[in-house]
Backbone:
């Protein structure tokens, strides 16, 4: 094996390892996005990640931290603004999503010294993954998975019937906040894999594919993780062999799996 | 646990300065079955949400014993189609043991649906499932928001009968909202007629005479209910209007049962 080969395969394995880590948390969180109809909400948070990056450069904090904090602030702003009911939620989401993306891009243009790979941020730069990124991904994944395991019953119950959950003493509002924090964390780490424009796809496509075959919530989560693994593995192979961009290839694979499952599988429970 | 499960004292709830629930006094004791009736927008659901502790109140007081366990049967179980859920899994989410869950399902007559998807249940089956879920927690107070919605006439009577039996078995208090005036009148201990404020309250037999009740529901409804529930001590003319015995002229003279 030549040196070039071993280096190539080294970053390939790193990308694969990182991608699988993201799929591991995108599965369960993606299910909540689908169940709670938060797809557009996820998109908004993802778009605001770019603003987070610009702000991190501005005040020199680590990128991931800047993204997480910005996402959390935007999420809380969304909750507070939607309570006033002055504007419909989708209008509000549209305003915040695109404004934060635009402000992020404008802010970056004011910093000529900062060299940012914009394409990488928007569409992902999976193959440039380094050791530190892997650390972030698996650290973030561990936090999110442990939180999910602890909060599972309450989260599920408040998704099924919010009032019933409240009456049974489940802290619905605090769980909503916890869920948003987890989203922010996942967006910060998944950005590297698929980019801010495609994160929602990685969250919802595997979950939606899993819905077709699942009989129970936990079953759907497990299947969503499996479909996420398939998307990452397939997408990276595609990218490797056909020299296509990695992030979009992952999403295309996820979409093909979705079509295949919906085209062939009998509906498990409707 | 004291005998008095919930006590409302001058409870008022306002939305944008408009009172939706206006100075309501109410007590629920163990063994009570209290039904709230009233026209649309009368504040019935808001009132029971306050009793459940999920509605902010504007003034007045609600007192509940600190360890009160409430079983709540909401109006609907509208499940997101993307969320796969079996009856068994839904029951287990209440945090009780599997045997307690199965027992509750058995009691409400839907145990055979244990492995069915919640999405496939009929309206009546969903109500019985929700009732079983409330039951599994062994509540001190059972709160039901229109429990018979989407249930056919025969099913409705059976459901109210079941609620009565459960009250006896659990020795709990029951408070519910209902639109089925006839069934309510037959199955309830006490009726509260709400139209923001409590217009009238009392035993079914008495309440249909109450001028406030007649004003709220109209003469015809009041009369048709009265027919079911008490022996008349007065007479009617052909329009159903009450006539005094002395002013009785060429109309019916009967006792309704």
Residues:
């Amino acid at each position: 094996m030549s040196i070039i080969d071993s280096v190539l395969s080294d970053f390939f394995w790193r990308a694969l390892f990182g991608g699988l880590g993201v799929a591991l948390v995108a599965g369960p969180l993606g299910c909540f996005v689908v169940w709670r109809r938060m797809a557009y909400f996820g998109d908004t948070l993802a778009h605001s990640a770019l603003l987070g990056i610009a702000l991190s450069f501005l005040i020199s904090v680590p990128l991931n931290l800047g993204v997480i904090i910005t996402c959390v602030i935007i999420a809380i702003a969304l909750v507070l603004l939607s309570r006033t009911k002055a504007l419909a939620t989708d209008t509000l989401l549209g305003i915040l999503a695109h404004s934060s993306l635009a402000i992020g891009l404008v802010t970056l243009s004011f910093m000529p010294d900062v060299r940012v790979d914009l394409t990488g941020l928007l569409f992902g730069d999976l193959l440039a993954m380094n050791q530190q990124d892997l650390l972030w991904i698996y650290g973030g994944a561990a936090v999110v998975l442990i939180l999910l395991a602890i909060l599972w019953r309450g989260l599920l119950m408040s998704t099924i019937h919010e009032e019933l959950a409240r009456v049974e003493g489940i802290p619905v509002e605090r769980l909503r906040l916890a869920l948003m924090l987890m989203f922010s964390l996942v967006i910060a780490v998944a950005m590297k894999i698929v980019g801010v424009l495609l994160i929602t796809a990685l969250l919802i496509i595997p979950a939606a594919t899993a819905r077709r075959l699942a009989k129970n919530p936990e079953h759907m989560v497990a299947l969503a993780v499996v479909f996420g693994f398939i998307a990452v593995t397939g997408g990276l192979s595609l990218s490797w062999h056909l020299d296509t961009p990695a992030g979009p290839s992952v999403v295309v694979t996820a979409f093909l799996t979705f079509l295949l499952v919906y085209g062939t599988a009998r509906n498990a429970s409707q | 646990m004291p005998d008095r499960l919930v006590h409302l004292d001058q409870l008022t709830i306002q939305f944008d300065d408009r009172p939706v629930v206006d100075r309501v006094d109410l007590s629920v004791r163990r063994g009570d079955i209290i039904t709230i009736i009233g026209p649309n927008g009368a504040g019935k659901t808001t009132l029971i949400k306050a009793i459940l502790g999920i509605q902010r109140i504007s003034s007045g007081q609600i007192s509940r014993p600190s360890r009160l366990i409430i079983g709540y049967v909401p109006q609907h179980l509208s499940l997101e189609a993307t969320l796969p859920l079996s009856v068994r899994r839904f029951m287990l989410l209440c945090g009780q043991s599997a045997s307690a869950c199965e027992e509750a399902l058995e009691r409400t007559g839907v145990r055979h649906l244990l492995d069915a998807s919640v999405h496939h249940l009929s309206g009546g089956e969903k109500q019985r499932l929700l009732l079983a879920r409330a039951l599994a927690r062994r509540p001190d107070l059972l709160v039901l928001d229109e429990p018979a919605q989407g249930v056919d006439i025969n099913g409705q009577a059976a459901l109210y009968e079941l609620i009565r039996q459960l009250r006896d078995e659990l020795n709990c208090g029951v408070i519910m909202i209902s639109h089925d005036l006839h069934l309510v009148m037959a199955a309830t201990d006490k009726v509260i007629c709400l139209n923001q404020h409590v217009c009238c309250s009392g035993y079914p037999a008495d309440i249909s005479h109450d001028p406030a009740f007649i004003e709220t529901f109209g003469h015809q409804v009041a009369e048709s209910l009265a027919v079911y529930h008490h022996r008349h001590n007065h007479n009617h003319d052909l329009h159903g209007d009450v006539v005094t015995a002395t002013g009785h002229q060429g109309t019916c003279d009967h006792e309704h049962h």
Notes: Chain B is about 35% helix and 25% strand. The two ends of chain B are 40 Å apart (CA to CA). Chain B has three domains: 1-69+140-207, 77-138, 218-257. The interface with chain A takes residues 49, 52-54, 70, 72, 74, 77, 79-86, 89-90, 93-95, 117, 119-120, 133, 137, 143 of chain B (CB under 8 Å).
